[in-house]
Amino acid sequence: MAGVASKTLFNKPKVELHCHLDGAIRLKTILHFAKKRKIQIPTENEGELRSLVTCNRPSSLTEVLSKFSYYMPVIAGDREAIQQIAYELVEDKAKEGVVYLEARYSPHYLANCNVHPIPWGQTEGDISPDEVVNLVNQGFRRGQCDFGIKVRSILCCIRHMQAWSPEIVELCKKYRNDGVVGIDLAGDELMDTESYPGHVQAYEMAVKCGIHRTVHAGEVGPPKVVREAVDILKAERIGHGYVTIKDPALYKEILQKRIHIEACPLSSVLTGACDPDYTKHPVVTFMKDEANFSINTDDPLIFNSTIHTDYNIAAEHMNFTELEFRTMNLNAASSSFLCSREKKELLNQLYTAYGMTQNVC
Questions:
Q1: Are 185 and 199 in contact (CB under 8 A)?
Q2: d(C-alpha 265, C-alpha 283), whole Å
Q3: Strands 293-295 and 260-263
Q4: Structure confidence by residue, pLDDT tens digits, 112-126
Q5: Whole-model pTM?
Q6: Catalytic site residues?
Q7: Crossing angle of helices 248-257/223-231, nearest 10°?
Q8: What is the tens place of the pLDDT at every residue in 293-342?
Q9: Of 116, 204, 91, nearest to 196 (Cα)?
């Protein structure tokens, strides 16, 4: 199974649209704050911690999500830790050649560590979701200044916590000119969207306020979850979306409307969402059909990966050429949640780096 790859077969600037901040934390940072905050975790050894929090073979999404409980109580509720993980993510992505990143997270999870219970004790935090967003923004701003890439945030609603969703919309509105570019819905896809009106109302308000929208759908749930995301939540992008190819009418609509699919190849196999044979992966179909999609890491800590890992999978097992990588990244830039001016700047940056003559005016 693929692990961390230090080099990629595509060494040009890249755009990443689907990466979870809380799934992209350095092991050293977890150990540092566990010691500083005097929080007991199962091990103080980096290698042993890696074996606990990473997934190296196909399992299930439930098992993958359980990995977060080992370390999130160390980070959640701590101002310094939250700002530091944001800063370090910018540095890590800059080293991977990513020039634009949209990182997503749940402000409530990072604010309240008690939503990540651990069997060896609880910790306390006194910060609000609003302050979490401000802290992440500070970390991202420092990172952008130091490492020369552009980073924006997407704030996550959680399917089984619909009471949080109205506040997520308000935070998106408050920080829309200060680093936050969109809203997401993550969590158990088997929960019927229409049975949780809080999410529907939140997305209706997002549409009304001009807030960009993406939804986790079609990873392990049925095609109808993607249909709900498109028809009810008015999603502009779909996180994962692999099952769309099982519903010809839905897939045709996704293609025709150019709805962007945020694919994560390694993640999809390790969560059990897709066949371990990458040559049969839905991304191969997306590529052949010239779909609007991108390749992303999802949770690089959990999957012990970098963007190079996923790109190398695409090159070695899915026959991606440099042309496909360039086209994919241009599609990602076009589907980003940046404002019109910044999107044009990003596209022109990529055209120049790729040696292409087209210019976006």
A1: yes
A2: 8
A3: parallel
A4: 745 444 433 344 557
A5: 0.94
A6: 219
A7: 40
A8: 999 999 999 999 999 999 999 999 999 999 999 999 999 999 999 999 99
A9: 204
